[in-house]
Amino acid sequence: MNRRALRSVARHAAVRWTLAIVVVTGVAAAFVTAVRDQRQEIVAAAARLSPAAVLLAWLLVLAGSVAAMAAWRAVFAADGGPRGWRAAAGIFFVGQLGTYIPGGGWQPMLQLYMGRRAGVPASRIVTAFALNVVVSVSAGLTLGLAAAPAVLGTRAWWLAAPALVALVGIARPQLLAGLVRRAVRRWRSGQAAVPSAGRIRRAYAGSLLSWGLHGAHLWVLAVALGAPALRTLPLCLGGMALSILAGSFLPLTPGGVGIREVVLTVALVGVLSRPEIVIVIAVSRLGYMAADAVLAGLPFLGRARPARLLHPDSART
């Protein structure tokens, strides 16, 4: 890389980090202001949130993340390579940590790095990532229809398009896989592995389950603070999916900080008071951070060192 390219990369990185710092600072200032102005109400709401509800919500976050990994693994382990859950989890969950770095592209870069250590061809990682993005986004936006009227108002109609993509992917999965394969071939030379129709359908099932579990964790927290159960359920299922995807589409801040909170506030403002929403969002955010840290470290626990885990055959040499 020449000196001009290095300067360009450094300049873009500096801009991304500066914007991220500005946004995070603004979110923190808004949070501090809300806490200061409604301190007593927020403390009272936090006292009503039982440890059992918090634990159940966190377990649902963990389950949702594992289901997302299973959906990704369905298309990743298509033709040989490391099929074990531990190796796949090492690639997927470490890649998830890339969402906490400002700017886009860190998640696939970390997956490529971990995949290379595992001896997985880059074309397989890229194909699995691209296909999983299509599956996950279309499934998440389809579930987002449940909360779209509350969040998007009259503009909710455009979510019918990703719902159509999900239906096509389930009914004709090889068509979807062929489009992704051609896109990957344009990006990299060589043959891109395409999973079977059954694996793509399994990926859709795992992705829908994952989005449902993520929404369920928010519902548990909201109901624990007094939100009406039936009315809140679609708002939580759809709102959680839309908030996570909004943070992914606009990867300016780490973990979509600020963007996710705005979407969740709009979704829940009709069923919870603002102090209660602050508590739900804060507990949810901390739960996701703890879950991502735990899941990224779990594959490396035990007697196997990271190098041996990612190179299963190295122990025999």
UniProtKB/TrEMBL annotation:
Keyword terms, alphabetized: Cell membrane, Membrane, Transmembrane, Transmembrane helix
Transmembrane helix as UniProt keyword: yes
Cellular compartment(s): Cell membrane
Membrane topology: Multi-pass membrane protein
InterPro entries xref list: L-PG_synthase/AglD
Membrane-spanning residues: 14-35, 47-72, 125-151, 157-180, 208-226, 257-273, 279-301
A Pfam family per the record: LPG_synthase_TM
Coiled-coil ranges (or none): none
Protein name (Swiss-Prot/TrEMBL): Flippase-like domain-containing protein
Source species of the chain: Actinomadura miaoliensis
Lineage of source species: Bacteria, Bacillati, Actinomycetota, Actinomycetes, Streptosporangiales
